[in-house]
Amino acid sequence: MANESWEGYSMEDLAGEIRGRLDDIIYYLGKDDRRGAEMKAEWLASAAQEVLDRVRP
Question: Superkingdom of the source (predicted)?
């Protein structure tokens, strides 16, 4: 998921997706599913990098 294409996503859309992935990570950690949490964290890192790329001058 780290290679997700963010083209066409607004900042508001990205914020909503990030919120959802945080909820997913919390869920997987609660179930002690480290692989599930790792996959969602990789996706979250990709989305966060996209936000940084957009807001940096």
Answer: Bacteria
- Domain boundaries along the sequence of the chain: 11-49
Quick check: 4 pLDDT over 80? Answer: no
Classified as helix, coil or strand, 26 is helix
pLDDT in tens, 29-51: 999 999 999 999 998 999 889 99
* Cα separation, 2 vs 30, whole angstroms: 23
The runs of H, that is alpha helices, within the chain are 11-30, 34-55
Paired tokens of 48: 């966060």
